[in-house]
Write a structure and sequence with these properties.
Length: 301
């Protein structure tokens, strides 16, 4: 999992909170509940991951009915028609919607798996696509968070719909992509099994290790160990590249091409490894965390 870090995050959060209000069906709430939601609306829509549990508990404490919250915030066929998150996530709306949010976030690789691209294409006359928005706290159990900015995780359809599906997530059980990253908690490691590892994928294993239980839950619930086993071809190439691109050959390439083909050594290493290897850039290309960790182990970096 790669942390979502954006320079203009605060501006996007503020804009989202202002614009998304139009999707809430206040009429679905009783008067007392309506007053509660309206009074706390900014807090609800901008609530940070650390405070998600408090918002849930506070609504419970104030006896705000979950079914009516569902009608107000989620919408959908059984819950009050096209309003709430259901309408927000539809491309039929011409105002601010999930496509607008996805464009603003510009998160182009799934933060959960770092395997799949999640580009946003919004085009009136052609096919459109965008990342899914995973509700970190699921919207049926916690409808009050259905439109809250930090509860909407841009992610690939495999992670959201196939792998996470109905699994319950919370900030106490799982790392949250707006708070944390695998960089602080988990590492890919290479385990050499046979001397054929230079040319044979069966000669080694890749393991994704962590001592942090919340990172382990992410690994398990998104089947990351099993899925990354499918990327042994990339690791085999790195093993081979580490032999070819030794220190003296890298120095020679820098001498010959610095300032013409490469801006700096990081540029050259990106070309060699095919990954964005700086910690701040891991989100830019699929498999970058795998490539960075294994390249470090092979002393390519
Ligand atoms: Zn994914």
């Amino acid at each position: 999992m790669i942390k979502i870090s954006l320079d203009n995050l605060e501006a996007i959060v503020n804009f989202h909170a202002e614009e998304v209000e139009q999707y809430i069906n206040f009429d679905a709430l009783q008067q007392r509940e309506r007053i509660y939601v309206k009074t706390n609306l900014e807090k609800i829509l901008k609530v940070t991951p650390e405070e998600h549990d408090n918002i849930i508990q506070d609504a419970k404490h104030n006896n705000i009915d979950n079914n009516r919250l569902k009608k107000a915030f989620v919408g959908g066929k059984d819950n009050g028609g096209s309003i709430g998150y259901t309408k927000f996530s539809s491309k039929a709306t011409s105002t601010y919607n999930a496509y607008t949010l996805a464009e603003k976030l510009n998160v182009n690789v799934c933060p959960y798996c770092n395997r799949n691209y999640t580009f946003t294409i919004k085009n009136k006359n052609a096919k459109s696509t965008r990342p899914d928005f995973d509700h970190f706290y699921d919207k049926n159990t916690y409808p009050i968070l259905a439109l809250s900015f930090y509860n909407l995780i841009p992610s690939c359809i495999l992670c959201n719909s196939r792998l996470k599906s109905r699994t319950k997530f919370s900030t106490t059980t799982h790392l949250h992509p707006y708070q944390e990253s695998f960089n602080d908690f988990a590492k890919f490691k290479l385990k050499i099994e046979k001397c054929s590892f230079y040319y044979d994928e069966n000669g080694f294993e890749i393991t994704l290790k962590t001592k942090e239980p919340r990172a382990q839950k992410i690994i398990d619930d998104f089947a990351l160990q099993t899925l990354y086993d499918k990327h042994k071809d990339i690791v085999l190439e790195l093993i081979q590249k580490a032999q070819i691109y030794n220190e003296s050959y890298l120095d020679e390439l820098m001498q010959n091409y610095e300032g013409t083909l490469f801006k700096n050594r990081e540029d050259l290493l990106r070309l060699v490894t095919c990954g964005y290897v700086s910690d701040d850039d891991l989100h830019k290309r699929p498999l970058s965390k795998l490539i960075k960790d294994i390249s470090e182990e092979l002393e390519l970096l």
